[in-house]
Amino acid sequence: MAAGSEVSSHLTLEATAAGNQGQRVKPFTPEKAKEIIMSLQQPAIFCNMVFDWPARHWTAKHLSEVLHGKQIRFRMGMKNTDTGKPVPQFETACSYVEATLEEFLTWNCDQSSDSGPFKDYDHSKFWAYADYKYFVSLFEDKTDIFQDVIWSDFGFPGRNGQESTLWIGSLGAHTPCHLDSYGCNLVFQVQGRKRWHLFPPEDTPFLYPTRIPYEESSVFSKINIVNPDLKRFPQFQKARRHTVTLSPGQVLFVPRHWWHYVESIDPVTVSINSWIELEEDHLARVEEAITRMLVCALKTAEDPHNTRAWLNPTEVEETSHEVNCHYLNGAVAAFLDHYKTSKGVEIQALRTSKENLQKERMEMEGTHGQNGTMAAIKQEAASLFGPDLVPVTLRSKETPSEGGGIFESDGKDFVFKDGKHFAKLFCADRQQTMSTSDNAGVDQMASNSAPAPSQTFVSTDDLLDCLVNPQVTRMVALLLLQGKSCDSNR
């Protein structure tokens, strides 16, 4: 036997022995996983990272036993409209039910009943979603269960279920298309599958952002992602949709400010997520405080009693102008305090992209000579793509139908309908500048016909869509912080 064959056989025997002992090695160390998360600029799926988490077995049935008798709020929505096509529904358009998980599972099995919390909702016509359930509230008397979620495996020591939220839904349950103002997102799929539609931050002008209904830290899209009205929203054709089906045991990484629409495609789905704080959040909090002040000021002046029309149910109540001023001052003070030893707020605030922040860290640590540029870091992160780190790919433009031109696998591979495989990394052009995206509004006006007289009326919501557009609030926040920085230097 050749020496090479002996080595190969020896390694095979060792691997078999390790497997027999139930030993599995995770593909990334916590340090490497965090490095990937903090440098990767596109969504990706981590595989084989949570096989030993106790939460891996948190099916809805198991959780119903753990939370026996506990009342949970479910959001109820229609599966299809009169046209027979699904339409994403904002939380303000949904009804709500207080029920236990046992009652949800009974209803979800189509065991109809003339009594109980779901009696008014035909299972064939409605979906139910227990979304956004914080562990600290859901398991307030069972805090030991926090340890079943081990985000420290991704490089965040001490992070567990205490910083997590739970999502339980039926077939058709969905989250409206939105972006999160704060942090990046790690999503662990426990039971069932969810389909994710994601769009990069540069496509924001094409997603027609709105802050009505208002919810802190969520910027919604006006578009029906699954069945868009391109006559009304023509710029959406330019958006670059990335799609993936997330399966049990996988963890999806959603980078900062990536838009996402999420739908449950199995009878029961269970997910756990955690938002990871980022350096950019200091500025984002100032932007959110400005947004809250403007939205509350204009909407309450319009009709102080009409809060349900514009306030998302996730917001407990409208806040007074005095309280909103307090929030804004607190956010500004926290930002200035955080950067008081930096090179100046004017420079620091303008250099809040992940690339520049990492570049500054390398400069301060004197490592830029060793690591080269950020392009080298991105290339290194991309080189890790493989069976254990799968990029979420851009959907083919060749087939614009909902089915797309891609067969989605379990996250290990992607193939076109003709059988051809994607390259290891699908590199989309991400060099779009702000000046280019600013032209979207001009293009839209040019592409639309002259509006009818009834369309020329400007509502409060129309004005707010302009005033609290993410690009506008970013500019206002920077101007405000620069002014305060000058004041503090007097």
TrEMBL record:
Nucleus among keywords: no
Keyword NADP (UniProt): no
Region (Disordered): 1-26
Annotated JmjC domain residues: 127-291
Gene3D superfamilies noted in UniProt: Cupin (2.60.120.650)
Keywords, ordered alphabetically: Cytoplasm
Alphabetized Pfam families for the sequence: Cupin_8
PROSITE patterns, sorted: JMJC
A GO CC annotation given for this chain: cytoplasm
Protein name, per record: HSPB1-associated protein 1
